[in-house]
User: Fold this.
Amino acid sequence: MAKLRLENVTKIYGKDIIGVKGISLDVSDGEFLVVVGPSGCGKSTLLRLIAGLEKPSEGKIFIDDILVNDMPPKDRNIAMVFQDYALYPHMRVKENIGFGLKMRQIPGSEIERKVAEIARILQIENLLERYPRELSGGQRQRVAVGRAIVREPKLFLFDEPLSNLDAKLREEMRTELLRLHDRLKATVVYVTHDQLEAMTMGTKIAILNKGELQQIGPPLILYNKPSNLFVASFIGTPTMNFINGYIENGKFVSNVLTFPVFTQQISEPTAVIAGIRPEDFIIESEGEYWGTVEIIEPLGSELFVYINVKNKSLIVRTKPNENIKKGARINFKIILEKVHLFNRDDGKRIN
Ligand code: ADP
Ligand code: MG
Assistant:
């Protein structure tokens, strides 16, 4: 399989539309990199640059240490799976999967063998004689993946391949793709706008916003140490709670909550935003903070409670608890070591 390196890659469309800007990243052999970010942040542009469908305006792209900026797509040995699978409607499943091999003049018996093997891996052996219109969304998705892997490419690029599927099927396909990745030991760059997909699938996640890389790293590093406000608010559901305030005399001070902070090398007073994840509040009758229960969302295995504290609504994740009543006063604690602090001027993490 392959490794991939981007050095300061920028793509400007036309005069001044930023596709991506100054992206540097490494994907090692066999790694599953998920690129995530809101719509329009440059995810597809990034994949198209790697595939060779676009040329960078600046910067270098290496596959296996070979500079590929000027290498045509067909020589890069990359397979790309798109959101709309674009299967050939007039071909049966087996011809759809085998098409790439046929174009390369691989003998028919060899194609048949490979298609059968892929069909077994993807569990679509019973669908080989069907046409795309006779398949469900999930089945079409599998065929599209089959068509990509049959060529045994060095590198797989997926562009939001699951976003047309319903929630249940998406969950199934997610696991299936991970299994496939384990089995093929393939190097994958997988694009999604769904942070849950990113968290569950990636061995490494790259977060983009407005064409720029915000942070890259293992999912839990991004979750526990988001490097700026954008990453903090993008990763995690329900979203992190944010409270405007100041750091003064070793304390976070605000209209809502005030608590000691553990941070050095900061000039005081500094305007900051404190970020607290819903699970880093602990509901406890001896807790020193309190508010009023506004909304209760029972999810079965857990509970989301919206607590109004001095006119600010904080969302708290807790275990199912029948004693929590709407409209009642409730006390809670904060796990202080887990509090995130961001500079209000530039949004960067300061602890
Ligand atoms: P994403 O896939 O994250 O939604 P894209 O990579 O498609 O984002 O787009 C990034 C930015 O580049 C957007 O502002 C988009 O409008 C612009 N863009 C993408 N493709 C083109 C193109 N062919 N010509 C001009 N602008 C483009
Ligand atoms: Mg896109």
